[in-house]
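Input (structure):
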């Protein structure tokens, strides 16, 4: 709309014209602005681009543009022995490496009808929960950092180091563990390791209140997150959002309880340490609260696993495999409750040692796509608050 009204209107005296200048808010010239967030924005946890249309300071539409980190993981899966896939699978969500491995070896084991030794089952469960704590602590430290608070990240990474040390001791890897094998684990854990894990869990549990004191009840954080970026239960269902984000919107869904694998049937049985953490508000604050409480639950599950492992007799932690391992012809889907949500592998075999097709269903993909529903109508100042609370890893989106 032009600033001046047109055309100029004649007045009483002949030969003169009057220009009417629009000064009301409704007469001001406005135009939508297209703003690119990324593809190297520090709040995107990787290389993501958001194409945002703004009307003033309010977001009209948001379009996530993905693919900057696409490495063709699914195609790489299909040219490798089923035992070699784990080395690639632990990298798409680099904060959940052990959990990624667990999903890919489990789908192969189920197609083979292979039974995993009991010690390996409980050790896998323990390591998966320790991995869940590590993943959550990254977001509990980085999310406040994106809102302008630097202190929490020092606390969260201090606690991470306690857990990281025992995982590194067991597997030999610090970030990509490569500890799962088809049929169990690479090897048994070192002597005295269970005691060191127990101490690490106790230390982290004792220190968590220090981190929480910086977040829970913080007036600035509450102002930036309460009622901001509300994801409705309906949109969460429609987009397939799972994990802490879905549960913060009232989705009482957790594969550890609803479709148990590893030792989770016992963990989530009555009297077990497992429970599902939910909220109904669906805002950025609810997502943060679910993540905080989920850390406490994972530490409780770790304690239960340690208790069971201490009572088990010594025994094997893997199965002897043939030199050439061929998966029977057929197809199978297996999903795990990864730290960020459902992580599924759909394996199609033609009886060869390599998959004919392996499709990855990653949690972060849905968590990013739902931004098209959450961001419109919010202020640009709240964009980082919302984006940081969606808890995704871009490698898990692009695959």
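Output (sequence):
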């Amino acid at each position: 709309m032009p600033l001046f009204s047109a055309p100029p209107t004649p007045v009483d005296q002949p030969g003169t014209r009057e220009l009417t200048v629009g000064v009301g808010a409704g007469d001001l010239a406005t135009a939508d602005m297209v703003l690119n967030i990324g593809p190297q924005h520090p709040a995107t946890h990787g290389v993501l681009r958001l194409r945002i249309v703004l009307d003033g300071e309010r977001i009209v539409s948001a379009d996530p543009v993905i693919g900057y980190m696409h490495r063709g993981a699914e195609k790489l899966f299909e040219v490798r022995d089923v035992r070699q896939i784990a080395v690639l699978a632990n990298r798409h969500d680099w904060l959940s490496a052990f959990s990624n491995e667990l999903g890919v070896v489990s789908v192969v084991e189920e197609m083979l009808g292979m039974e995993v030794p009991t010690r390996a089952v409980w050790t896998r469960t323990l390591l998966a929960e320790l991995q869940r704590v590590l993943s959550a602590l990254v977001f509990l430290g980085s999310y406040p950092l994106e809102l302008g608070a630097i202190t929490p990240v020092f606390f969260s990474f201090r606690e991470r180091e306690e857990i990281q040390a025992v995982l590194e001791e067991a597997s030999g890897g610090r970030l990509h563990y490569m500890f799962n094998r088809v049929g169990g684990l690479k090897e048994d854990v070192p002597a005295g390791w269970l005691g060191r894990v127990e101490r690490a869990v106790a230390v982290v549990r004792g220190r968590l209140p220090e981190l929480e004191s910086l977040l829970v009840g913080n007036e600035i954080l509450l102002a930036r997150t309460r009622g901001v970026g509300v994801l409705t239960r309906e949109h969460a269902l429609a987009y397939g959002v799972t994990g802490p984000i879905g549960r913060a919107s009232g989705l009482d869904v957790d594969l550890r309880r609803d479709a148990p694998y590893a030792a989770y049937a016992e963990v989530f049985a009555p009297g077990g340490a497992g429970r599902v953490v939910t909220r109904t508000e669906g805002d950025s604050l609810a997502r943060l609260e679910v993540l905080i409480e989920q850390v406490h639950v994972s530490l409780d599950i770790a304690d239960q696993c340690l208790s069971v492992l201490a009572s088990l007799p010594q025994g094997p932690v893997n199965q002897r495999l043939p030199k050439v391992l061929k998966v029977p012809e057929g197809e199978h889907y297996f999903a795990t409750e990864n730290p960020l949500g459902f992580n599924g592998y759909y394996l199609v075999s033609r009886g060869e040692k390599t998959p004919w097709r392996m499709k990855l269903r990653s949690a972060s993909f849905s968590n990013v796509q739902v931004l098209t529903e959450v961001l419109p109508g919010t202020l640009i100042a709240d964009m980082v608050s919302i984006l940081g609370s969606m808890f995704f890893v871009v490698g898990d989106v692009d695959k």
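Notes: The first strand starts at residue 9 and ends at 10. Residues 121 and 262 are 5 Å apart (CA to CA).
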